[in-house]
Amino acid sequence: MSRCRVGRSLLVIGALWSGAGLLSATDAPALQAFGLGLAFPGGGFSLCGGLGSQIDTTALGMGGAVAATFGLALFLWFATGNLFAPPLVWLASAIGAAAYAVTHGCLSAESAWLPALGLASGIALAGLGVSYRRPYAGPPAPIPPAKLWHGLPAAPEPSLPPDLSDSDLARLRFLLDRALQPLDSFDGFERLDPFQSAALRYQLQFAG
Question: For this UniProt entry, which segments traverse the membrane (predicted)?
């Protein structure tokens, strides 16, 4: 993963945590729960249930169920390529926590440190993301003087590679049979699934 993508990911997480800190600092329980639900999956239930005016075991159980469901969504994403499953579970849990907090409440006055912690963590992550997105500003490497190159010994003549073995020729024939067919033909490729290592894009990558 490039530095730019790492920085982008840190910026997104920092924005989520900063928004969660701002929403949880309000006096509306629904906004508090929604913000904490955006901080991490199940946070709207778990943090409201554990840090509210009194311990809510139902909310804690629902937070654990959301965490398990999110883990299952991640597995489905990896197994089937369902890209939308994790964010949908995450967003639905935040909305559900907001609806639950309307009647059951969320953070108490003694939990004022949590919004400050979320906001500070979000700003720190966003700043780290900005630093990751900046290109390297180091000076270029110095070029040695030309006279130093004249004293180097001449490179030896490269030796010819050995002839291809029968197994190498068979692999080369296997690749050429698939590479030299018409562009709209994919004869000889496996079609087990379109998501995992048997997908056509991975077979083409390995062949290249």
Answer: 35-52, 59-78, 84-102, 114-132
